């Protein structure tokens, strides 16, 4: 009789679900082609004596987790104050958005701070470029420092060897998709390789209390390349966003074990490098002097930071099927604003091409932009400019009602700081314990029809 074949197990690389036979789609996470053979099932793990006893949480020291500023204020804002020793941060973004430039600048500033405080140097490992190429970029952006060590390696064992030799106070790996472990089958960037490399770097970071910054690639859909478990392994996941045709770059944390996830860091990328923008307002407002029809400013919240967004609308007669084009705004909300204007204000937009855009590459998908979109559209259709120095903040419902939005206090304060003298807001804003900044007139309206009437558009 033939010997009984050893049982096999298949494990999903995305969620860890296991099965006794291969299937094309994981029933747990619905991912296709992610089940990999894992060999014979493991036996039950025996209990071992702990090397150190469990400690009451009130007696655990916190001095080892004090955050260290990186020297880049906007990056520290996103991290929640700085880097925690032993933390692993993944910075993901599209090619050419400026990930390597930002982390090279962070590495140079951290090296300068480490030299002044007598700490170990910073190690920058590049798996995508040669050492001379990284040196050229460092010269261009002013990121040269003797305390910054550079290595061009893609083999995990060699990278860990450099870490043993330098014993850095900060490790930067550019990128995790180019590093490979010779003990794991598959090419660099594969699911198994990314998981194995990241696990090894996380373990080394925790053992040495060494912060690690990892560069991550994204897919064409904008999600982080590699297995979903990659985001679970690291402590902080940051998305680096920006339009290639705009100098504005934004870093936002989508996961942060040591701080908030609603903060946003703003940067300006140019030929001289990248610099933080503590006040990016000037990038989002046009510099024209005269007031023209079809424009309205609102105050959007990026995390907890209020920023101005100027909405511009253009309406022209259509020579065919009417077009609806948006840039920087959510197309579905723009379509609803057009429908409300047609229904509540009686504006004829059926035979017109409608174009909506923001200034400076700003993006806003929150409902607070609705009022500005509707007023900009009405202003463009009637060729009447809005009152100079007026901002509009509020959500527009399908009935035309102006509805309150979150963070109105911060939005009004930012509007006044930028010199706006009036703000169109939903009715009841003043009664909601909102402190109105001095010099800012609050124009409360029940619906978009009343708001348009105040501006002579209805």
From TrEMBL:
The keyword Metal-binding applies. SUPFAM superfamilies: P-loop containing nucleoside triphosphate hydrolases, Ribosomal protein S5 domain 2-like. NCBIfam families: sms. Residues 36-57 are annotated as: Disordered. GO terms for cellular component: cytosol. Residues 64-218 form the RecA family profile domain. The middle region has homology to RecA with ATPase motifs including the RadA KNRFG motif, while the C-terminus is homologous to Lon protease. Keywords: ATP-binding, DNA damage, DNA repair, DNA-binding, Hydrolase, Metal-binding, Nucleotide-binding, Stress response, Zinc, Zinc-finger. The lineage of its organism: Bacteria, Bacillati, Actinomycetota, Actinomycetes, Actinomycetales. CDD domains: RadA_SMS_N. Plays a role in repairing double-strand DNA breaks, probably involving stabilizing or processing branched DNA or blocked replication forks. DNA-dependent ATPase involved in processing of recombination intermediates, plays a role in repairing DNA breaks. Stimulates the branch migration of RecA-mediated strand transfer reactions, allowing the 3' invading strand to extend heteroduplex DNA faster. Binds ssDNA in the presence of ADP but not other nucleotides, has ATPase activity that is stimulated by ssDNA and various branched DNA structures, but inhibited by SSB. Does not have RecA's homology-searching function. Coiled coil: none annotated. GO terms for biological process: proteolysis; recombinational repair. ATP binds at residues 93-100. It comes from Peptidiphaga gingivicola. Belongs to the RecA family. RadA subfamily. It holds the Pfam family Zn_ribbon_LapB. This is DNA repair protein RadA. Residues 43-57 have a biased composition (Polar residues). A motif (RadA KNRFG motif) lies at residues 255-259. One of its GO terms (molecular function) is serine-type endopeptidase activity. Residues 353-458 are annotated as: Lon-protease-like.
């Amino acid at each position: 009789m033939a010997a009984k074949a050893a049982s096999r197990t298949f494990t999903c690389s995305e969620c860890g679900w296991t099965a006794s036979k291969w299937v094309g789609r994981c029933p747990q996470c619905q991912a296709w082609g992610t089940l990999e053979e894992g060999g014979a099932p493991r036996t039950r793990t025996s209990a071992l004596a702990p090397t150190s006893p469990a400690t009451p949480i009130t007696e655990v020291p916190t001095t080892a987790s004090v955050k260290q500023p990186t020297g880049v204020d906007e990056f520290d804002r996103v991290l929640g104050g700085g880097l925690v020793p032993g933390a692993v941060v993944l910075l993901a973004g599209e090619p050419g958005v400026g990930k390597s430039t930002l982390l090279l600048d962070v590495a140079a500033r951290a090296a300068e701070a480490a030299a002044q405080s007598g700490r170990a140097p910073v190690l920058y490992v590049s798996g995508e470029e040669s050492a001379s190429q990284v040196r050229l970029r460092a010269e261009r952006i002013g990121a040269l420092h003797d305390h910054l060590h550079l290595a061009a390696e893609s083999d995990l064992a060699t990278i860990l060897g450099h870490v043993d030799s330098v014993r850095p106070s900060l490790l930067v790996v550019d990128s995790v998709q180019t590093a490979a472990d010779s003990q794991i089958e598959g090419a660099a960037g594969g699911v198994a390789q990314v998981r194995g490399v990241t696990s090894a770097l996380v373990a080394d970071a925790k053992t040495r209390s060494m912060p690690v910054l990892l560069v991550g690639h994204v897919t064409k859909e904008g999600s982080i390349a590699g297995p979903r478990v990659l985001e679970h392994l690291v402590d902080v996941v940051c998305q680096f966003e920006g339009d290639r045709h705009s100098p504005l770059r934004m870093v936002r944390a989508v996961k942060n074990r040591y701080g908030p996830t609603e903060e946003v860091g703003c940067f300006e990328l140019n030929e001289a490098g990248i610099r933080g923008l503590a006040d990016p307002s000037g990038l989002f407002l046009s510099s024209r002097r005269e007031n023209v029809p079809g424009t309205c400013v609102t105050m959007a919240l990026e995390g907890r930071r209020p920023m101005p967004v100027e909405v511009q609308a253009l309406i022209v007669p259509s020579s065919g099927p009417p077009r609806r084009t948006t840039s920087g705004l959510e197309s579905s909300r723009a379509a609803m604003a057009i429908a409300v204007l047609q229904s509540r204000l009686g504006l004829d937009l059926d035979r017109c091409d409608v174009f909506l855009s923001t200034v400076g590459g700003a993006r806003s998908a929150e409902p607070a932009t609705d009022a500005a979109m509707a007023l900009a559209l009405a202003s463009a259709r009637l060729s009447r400019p809005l009152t100079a120095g007026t901002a509009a903040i509020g959500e527009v419902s399908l009935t035309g009602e102006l509805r309150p939005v979150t963070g109105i206090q911060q939005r009004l304060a930012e509007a006044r700081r930028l010199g706006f003298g009036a703000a169109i807001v939903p009715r009841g804003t003043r009664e909601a314990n909102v402190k109105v900044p001095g010099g800012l007139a609050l124009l409360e309206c029940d619906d978009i029809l009343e708001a348009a009437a105040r501006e002579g558009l209805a």
